[in-house]
Amino acid sequence: MKFVPITENSVDTAVLEKEYKSARQIGAIRLGDTCFIFRSRMKNYYIPYSDIKRCFRRVMGVNLKMCCGKGEMQVENLVIGDSEKELAVIQLPGTRAAQELMNEMKSRVQDCDFTAPKRDEPAIAVQGGAALV
């Protein structure tokens, strides 16, 4: 199994494989003892909990065209970031999974800000290629 680090810190592959098998799974995300692991396409990406400085939910409205007119669907995303930029944007299966995941993250990552950036804060750019669904 191939593990790709999102940040500069890397973890031994043998440790990651063991952690991946015993981790709690919520959608495409696995919460291990030391790392946040998620799958996108054919790779497993990971972020050590020590590198996560901001974590929040982003709800986006997606316009739909239906037989009876137009509608909008709410899509839940989890945004993981460090102090400077967003490291990953991961689509979640629904509101219940998002709430459950946020509760788990609060218990595992102690020194993290769980609020979205304010509108007057400068926007943080998504790291190249790391915004994954």
Structure, described:
- It is built from 2 helices and 8 strands, in the order βαβββββββα.
- The model is unreliable at 128-133 (pLDDT under 50).
- Helices cover 18% and strands 40% of the residues.
- Strands 1-5-4-3-2 form a 5-stranded mixed sheet, sandwiched between helices. It has a 3-stranded antiparallel sheet with strand order 6-7-8.
- It has helices at 13-22, 95-108; strands spanning 3-5, 24-26, 29-31, 35-40, 43-48, 54-66, 69-81, 86-91.
- The radius of gyration is 16 Å and the shape is globular.
- It is α+β, with helices and mostly antiparallel strands and 133 residues long.
How many strand segments? 8
Average per-residue pLDDT, rounded, comes to: 83
Unreliable spans: 128-133
Count of DSSP helices? 2
Please give the largest β-sheet: 5 strands, mixed
Rg measurement, Å? 16 Å
Please state the structural category.
alpha+beta
| Largest sheet strand order | 1-5-4-3-2
Q: Into which percentage range does the β-strand content fall?
A: 35-45%
Give the topology string: H per helix, E per strand: EHEEEEEEEH
Straight-line N-to-C gap: 19 Å
Percent helix among the residues?
A: 10-25%
Concise account of the structure shown:
This protein is 18% helix and 40% strand. The chain is an alpha+beta fold and 133 residues long.
Features of this protein?
3-stranded antiparallel β-sheet; alpha+beta; globular; 5-stranded mixed β-sheet; 133 residues
